[in-house]
Amino acid sequence: MPQPEEPIYCSQQINIPPELPDVLKQFTKAAIRTQPKDVLQWAYAYFDALSKGETPPLGGKPIIELSSLEEKWKHFSLPKETLEELLRIGSFPEELKWLDFLALACSAVSESLTLAMKTVCEILTTDLKGGSARIPFSLFKELYTYLAEIDGEIPKEHVSTVIDHLNYDMEKQDGQISPRNFMSDSCPPLSPNESS
């Protein structure tokens, strides 16, 4: 008995949902920004969040529940002890500002406050990879001030001096700031303990 022929598909027979290219494009951009160690686990967490109507992963919501953060942390296969230490340092309640948590996590893996803020910019920017990594100056000020307060050894006057200096750059850049601004020789170091 002859084998049934496999169906032949042509472009007219394949129905591609119109939203698929956008979904894949957003997924690819998120993966590039996140650089997950376990891509399959991260992809699962990403599409799981999408299927639940959530913004994947962690982004877009100013406040996140601690239980949701713990679940996402687990999806990324990150050490539980690291999360516990970050939660202790930040004194985070049951609902926390996820951008504060992100900034604190960046500082935990960076050698300096400047490098932490550079990483924050690279993660949060909407610029293409390899671009300026600009973020709104208001967001920079909020996260820089937060990390300076957590540090506890950076005087408020120093933070004000840095912000005043960067305000000039921001005005010329449509309210945006990038690492090249706060890493330039003319800018005071983000922490007085860092060499300029």
Automatic annotation (TrEMBL):
Gene3D superfamilies per UniProt: cAMP-dependent protein kinase regulatory subunit, dimerization-anchoring domain
Record keywords, A-Z: Cell projection, Cilium, Flagellum
Name used for this protein in its record: Ropporin-1-like protein
UniProt keyword Transferase present: no
Start and end residues of each stretch annotated as Disordered: 177-196
Record-linked CDD domains: DD_ROP
SUPFAM superfamilies: Dimerization-anchoring domain of cAMP-dependent PK regulatory subunit
Homology family: Belongs to the ropporin family.
Superkingdom to which the source organism belongs: Eukaryota
GO CC list: motile cilium
Subcellular location as annotated: Cell projection, Cilium, Flagellum
Main location: other
Signal peptide location: none
InterPro entries given in the database record: ROP_DD
PANTHER family linked: EF-HAND DOMAIN-CONTAINING PROTEIN, ROPPORIN-1-LIKE PROTEIN
